[in-house]
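In this supplementary section we document a worked example of the pipeline. Step one takes a protein sequence of length 545 as its only input; no multiple sequence alignment statistics are reported here. Step two produces a three-dimensional model, which step three serialises into structure tokens for compact storage. The input and output of this example are shown verbatim.
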Amino acid sequence: MAEEKQYLIHYLIARSCSVLLGTLTILVTYGLGKQIYDQRVALLAAGLVAISKMHVMHSSWATVDVATSFFAVVALRRCYLLIDKPTLRNYVLLALVSGVLIGTKYTGAAVLLPAAIAHAVAQSPGKREGVSLARSLLRVLSRSWLLVVLLGGTFAVFLATTPSILVQPGRLASAFQFEITRLARGGRDLLDLSMWQELVDCSIWWKIWGKLGTQVLGMPLAFIAVLGVCGALLAPLSRDALPCAFVLGYTLVMGSNTKGRYTLILVPFLCLYAARLLTRTRSFCGKAVGSAITWAVIAAALLFNLTAIGTRLSPDTRTLAAQYIAEQIPSGRSIGVGNVGNYKRDSWQLPRVPRDRQVLSDCLHDPDYIVLSSRDYEEMEDALDSPHLRDYSWEKEEARFWFPGEIPSPEVFRLYDDLLGGTTRWHDYEVIATFRCRSPVYLSSYPPGIRIYRHSHFEPRFFDPPAGMQNELQANLADSATLLGFDAPAQVQSGGSLQITLYWRANQLMDTSYTVFVHLVDTDWRMWSQSDSIPAGGTRPTTNR
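The serialised model returned by step three reads:
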């Protein structure tokens, strides 16, 4: 109870921080827009961020993505202050914010690109000084110690805000290796030169910007934002080049992984470029047409956001599945919702099963019912179709791309092959209920799909008692089951354990889940020890089919 209370307190603190930082992100976006452009652009950009689906969703969740977005905007503001006043104090402050940003999420390292550009611009003499290009380069090089201060300070703050790395330095290398592996699995091997050659292929950019429209901003706002970024590219020496460098640098590294919550860090800058372009439509389309376009984009973004919120407020698939289990599955039945053999599954992706009414079992123990989550079976569908799976065994050298932990055993793959393929070669189950989240818009961390399977038939499995059974009995319990006998040691040392094996045989189907108990008593009927449990340690309930 104390642990649950402590978890709840931490959870509320984390969500409160997200709400606070999400609100502050709107304010600093306004400040950045006013710093680069004017108040009209700043107000519109802040308003677009405030109604952005991805920003609104994550501002109420206990994640680090909103915090990353906030620190990214603050870092860009510090870059402009550095250009306007390249003092040691501004270098240190930029290093402080950049280090916190990278410590919050490693992908925030994209801020180093606009920071380096800001340093180069800050140390370059203005045109009015009338100096040559050679003298400009010499001045930049002579002030390179400030760049060292910037990069070194960023790294120092990063270490200070990530103390676990100081205690266990290997974690940093492991974390980077994990991110590189994850990107490589998505087709972004950063060490492969051919990947960078693909950047000239327009299809990759079409996919990236398409995901912005379908998942993050909505198509109208995403279209305007992309046009705004393209406009910034046509004037690379203007003041809006720094956010453009950040957006493109981040996108180049992430590639097709620039989707969902990974795009949240870009939302303020994309809204800024969209606001800049929308305010300029009045100059070349007229005031009436420009206002109509602006309000149409705002309405579309707001509708996109409200649709996602409405879908999120609908009953969760896990809640519906839990209700189905409570109402449709008889009490005492065994349900496989835990691990599948040696294959680990996340419990939060599955519905809660009342332990006082149902028996939880491993899916490989032939339970009455099996519950699967789409986060689980979708990956297994890909694995079953993969050439790396041969004779239900997975290639060990490819394990890190699919199963970071223990590789599933062949028995696990056989079970999933039957469940997902509708076959009965190894296990005979049929789908009796499915629950899916149907949303017209993309949802980050959407409720998983749930499938419930039932064993197709039941055949009583009688068995003959082993020939070496030590003690034979014929204890009939209401014609439901018979205790055939038991094994027990002749004597036990003081303080040792007493192992007793009972041999049961079911005489008929039972609707009640019975508990087997063994009590150790003396001649005065004083109980010294006991064992109460479902038969076979909970894996063979009397209601099992």
